[in-house]
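Weekly modeling sync, notes
Attendees: AB, CL, MP (scribe)

Item 1: holo prediction request
CL wants a bound-state model with pyridoxal-5'-phosphate before deciding which constructs to order. AB pointed out that an apo prediction alone won't tell us much about the pocket. Agreed to run with the ligand included and paste results into these notes for async review.

Input as submitted:
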Amino acid sequence: MKEILKQLPSVDELLKESRTQQWLTIHPRILVLEALRTAVNEIRVAILQAVSDESPPAEAGIRHPSIPDILDRAEGILTSLREPALQSLINATGVVVHTNLGRSPLSESAIRRVVEVSRGYSNLEYSIGAGERGKRHTHVEGILTRLTGVEAATAVNNNAAAVLLCLNTMARGKEVVVSRGELVEIGGSFRIPDVMERSGAVLREVGTTNKTHLKDYRAAINENTGLLLKVHTSNYKIVGFTKEVAPPELSALGKKFSIPVMWDLGSGSFIDLAAYGIGNEPTVQQAVDAGVDIITFSGDKLLGGPQAGLILGSQRYLDAIRSNPLARALRIDKLTLAALEATLNQYLDEKKAVQEIPTLWMLTQPLDEITRKAALLAEGLSAIGDADLSVSVQDDLSQTGGGSLPIGNLPTKVACISHNQLSANRIESLLRRGTPPIITRIKEGMVLFDPRTLNDEEIAQIIGAVRANLQKSGAKSQ
Ligand SMILES: *Cc1c(COP(=O)(O)O)cnc(C)c1O
């Protein structure tokens, strides 16, 4: 083994190979060097491992590493180094607003605007009419006030930023009254008490986990109260013996004591999804009608746009929020702004919005459409003609995801596969590690594809990937 180690070629020797020279004509030198170095290192580590285990290594390429073996390995590494780290993938999980998978895919018109605006210069902070410096927030303020009737609006980096900025502006060094039932954590890193602390505001918890009354808020108000905060508990639900204060009541209390009221809606839908039989999420319009002073929500949850945080409210609070020095640190960039403006404009026609904004379409598409796609997928998988492969279509539930509509699981039809020679975990892993990666769910020993989050083109890609993997593993086992 030690002999083999000594005989391993150096990177300089490998560089002289004609195959390596060929790579250098198409790939950056720095990547070729890294691939060669990594390949040699991997083999060295495997040999040392074999020495310490006192057993011969399993792979022939490591027992007798030849130059072509090492170059094969380096070529694989080089290929993966050339792939972008941030990749497109196929979401077959049926989770629509999937935070780990990039939340909301953009609509075609949003994509077009991003491409147009990013290609050249724009009036991002320039007033064309006046020929002087303009303001970046004005680009979405018009459409947001038109859609909701609020006085003023702005957009920042994300909703966590929106909440932080509002708390810091309205209540730094003051108390913020929140119900104990609404001190939520969203996705691990966003916790209302922690964001509150960072904002410089002091949390004043009232009520209990399951019940908070108006009189609890009332009793907490003192001369140092800066804000009454309501948080939509979008990722869980307290059921049973419960009481929360309705936003209009909280608004009235705030007005009586001249204390602003803020509602962090979280998802913030512009359309009433309950009308489509989905959940019971408050709409942005309901929040406006409740008379609260400040409303915040995400751009990439139920809105179906880019990552952003929207802040809507009265002019005087929005003025204060925009002139906070933190606003500069949390500002939205021009690509996001382009996509956001385009997405918001689509809401001027709700019927079109539901058809054209992918998140909304995936949520509201009729079960018939999902059934059609499940059948298409199942037919294609059966047509592979692998006797060991079982294919079926079953009833299941898709999730909205993204901390939205906690109990609003949606009926769906999934295509399911299992294989006599390959475990569900193995199939899941092969598909996940393919190109493009396909992300699936496993249930009761089967791999599930939920067509809610798939289009016909992706369905064809899934069938192709399953076929290729079965052929590969079939060839190996023979
Ligand atoms: C999701 C969510 C946030 C954070 O929004 P991001 O856009 O992910 O930053 C804040 N508050 C509530 C209630 C949420 O649901």
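Recorded for review: Residues 158-160, 163, 186, 190, 231-232, 234, 264, 266-267, 298, 309, 403 surround pyridoxal-5'-phosphate (CB under 6 Å).
Action items: CL to compare against the apo run; MP to circulate these notes.
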